Amino acid sequence: MIEILSPTQLPRAREAGALVADILQTLKSRCEVGTNLLDIDRWAEAMIVEAGALSCYVDYEPSFGRGPFGHYICTSVNDAVLHGLPHDYALADGDLLSLDLAVSVGGVVADSAISFIVGDTKPAQSVELISATERALAAGIAVAGPGARIGDISHAIGTTLNEAGYSVNTQFGGHGVGSTMHQDPHVSNTGRPGRGYKLRPGLLLALEPWIMADTAELVTDADGWTLRSATGCRTAHSEHTIAITDEGAEILTLPRQPHS
Ligand code: MG
Ligand code: MG
């Protein structure tokens, strides 16, 4: 089922989106060499609770994971790219960290992910991986609007990633968002323009390009959740939740206040 938000739900979606963005940027500003992934999880929990929002992750138990997730944020380091389960690991200089967070405010969900490098060392390959996912996300958002089709977004994302030299894994991609986190329609990170569901005002979509430096194959970690590159190469992931409006697409997961 594809959910179309009512005009009264859109302000709640904006609230959820801004909260997710603010939490992610606050966490990014706190991450330094030596920060433990479990601290990031605790900080995320505290900010979600403080805001009166609900975590979409802590009780989440989908077919692709093992049991309830049990944490408030996904922390994926280096070769880990999706669903990174927070664990006792202290970040090192030059680590590439992806944080993925979804919360519900007033019954509406927003979902966003950012990737960044910890510390002073900025490995060139990691910088480019992050840049490519951010460019692909921007390309997908640029073609989203009323009357456009899901395939237009998929094509824009996939073309950007391919032209940057990366192959696309189609096991996981973007998705509809609304009263729950993962809804129809699926938004593949590759596709053909002019195909698929036609976008309508009130539709919320989470667009989320992710890539691995030299492979399109994933392996599941022994923790049952964390997905890693099959070759051990580095990876990156960028995600925004957007609302289709009469005028185009509104990015909901932008921070309200400036962050360093
Ligand atoms: Mg996400
Ligand atoms: Mg998502």
From TrEMBL:
Cofactor section: Co(2+); Zn(2+); Mn(2+); Fe(2+)
Gene Ontology annotations for the cellular component aspect, listed alphabetically: cytosol
GO molecular function, one term: metalloaminopeptidase activity
Cross-referenced InterPro entries: Creatinase/aminopeptidase-like, Pept_M24, Pept_M24_MAP, Pept_M24A_MAP1
Transmembrane segments: none
Binding positions for substrate per the UniProt entry: H83, H182
EC number: 3.4.11.18
Binding residue positions for a divalent metal cation 1: D100, D111, E239
Gene Ontology biological-process entries: proteolysis
Residues given in the record as a divalent metal cation 2 binding sites: D111, H175, E208, E239
UniProt keyword Metal-binding present: yes
Domain Peptidase M24 residue range list: 13-246
Pfam families cross-referenced by the UniProt entry: Peptidase_M24
Details of cofactor binding: Binds 2 divalent metal cations per subunit. Has a high-affinity and a low affinity metal-binding site. The true nature of the physiological cofactor is under debate. The enzyme is active with cobalt, zinc, manganese or divalent iron ions. Most likely, methionine aminopeptidases function as mononuclear Fe(2+)-metalloproteases under physiological conditions, and the catalytically relevant metal-binding site has been assigned to the histidine-containing high-affinity site.
Domain of life: Bacteria
Catalytic activity: Release of N-terminal amino acids, preferentially methionine, from peptides and arylamides
Listed HAMAP family: MetAP_1
Assembly and binders: Monomer.
Job description of the protein: Removes the N-terminal methionine from nascent proteins. The N-terminal methionine is often cleaved when the second residue in the primary sequence is small and uncharged (Met-Ala-, Cys, Gly, Pro, Ser, Thr, or Val). Requires deformylation of the N(alpha)-formylated initiator methionine before it can be hydrolyzed.
Similarity comment text for this entry: Belongs to the peptidase M24A family. Methionine aminopeptidase type 1 subfamily.
Name used for this protein in its record: Methionine aminopeptidase
Species this chain originates from: Micromonospora carbonacea
Gene giving rise to this polypeptide: map
